[in-house]
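User: I'm putting together a teaching handout on how sequence relates to shape, and I'd like one worked example. Could you take FAD binding domain protein from Brevibacterium mcbrellneri ATCC 49030, show the sequence you're using, and then write out its predicted structure as tokens right after it?

Assistant: Happy to. First the sequence, then the structure tokens directly below it.
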Amino acid sequence: MRIAVVGAGITGLCVSAGLQSSGADVTIFERSDDMRPGGSGLSIFGNGMKALDYLGLGARVRTLTDISYQGKYVPYASRFVGGLRSPNGSWFTRVPAGQIEGLRVVERSDLHAILSSAVIMDSVRTNAPVIKVTETGKITTANGHFDSFDLVIGADGLRSVVRSCMPFDTGVKYAGYSAWRGITDQPVTLNWEAGETWGNGARFGIAPLSDGRVYWFATRSGKLTTGPADIRGALLDEFSDWHAPVAELITQTENIQYLPIFELANAPKSFIHGRTVLIGDAAHAMTPNLGQGGNIGIEDAAQLVHCLADIADAPHVESTDLFKRLNSYDLLRRPRANRIALASRRVGRLAQASSPLLVTGRNAALRAVPSRVFRNQVESVQRWELTSI
């Protein structure tokens, strides 16, 4: 099969590596002039690792995240206490170290480098933005290049060109809050405590990298803006009186990224249209409140590779066979992705509450939730298995 993958981000590289291993002739179209990724850190949960293992990439990713502990290798992040705290540092709900064993935290650039090394580099076309895709598998790039493929995979993110060429695209919408993300320049002592802190219309998240540096994020509800000119100063004004080491993490980070949070305006009626298929954020861009956006995208990649594995190396594929497999992918992936996106949206509304009455009620409810219930909720979204068609 000749397959075009639009987008060389994490999901695009995952699906490309898997399809090339299955014998497909894959061409990757990347709009930027290089393959350096954006972003800062990424949480990989058990479901994401299971998908990476299927794609043959899990062992390499573990070299970034796992440490030797009591005679075996375990995810470094799993050695930390997690849960939810208030700005003064008191715990709403606390999950002991080791209770969420599958959690791994990576720097996006490191993960991207591993995934890039897994694809055939001659198959990547940089500075090749795709501007049009047809349901028959034809693509057009901005430099006037035309080509035809058996299948076009849209892995081009939130503002997907591939999705925009489908009849059911409804665009994106602002979620009502913005985020700041960064990774400290040097290791910071966390006293083996991580997790999230929920305040009044604001949050702060702490996630340890295996080299001692810390990936963190902050959110604030409000109207859509371009962000403050002095990012660090604005964050310190907002979070300076929150528990340690929040202020230290901000001051110890040179590169802080501002990111207004968007999601799909409506869930697509389908992830497929003719010879085109969506994966990752192109299919289901969601708010980051469950840390599952990237994981669900990696699941997409694994399931699509699995659906196409038997025909990937075929020089000619009957349309009926291809469409049957794409339909199976859609039926398997869309309900789960939409369910996780909805759950993430609901968590965001709760976490970003700013009414004093709502915040007081929320905090009281959180304190009443046993840690095992919180842990079970976190683990429930990780329950996923590759499905045969």
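A couple of points you could highlight for students: The chain has a mean pLDDT of 96. The CA atoms of residues 173 and 265 lie 5 Å apart.
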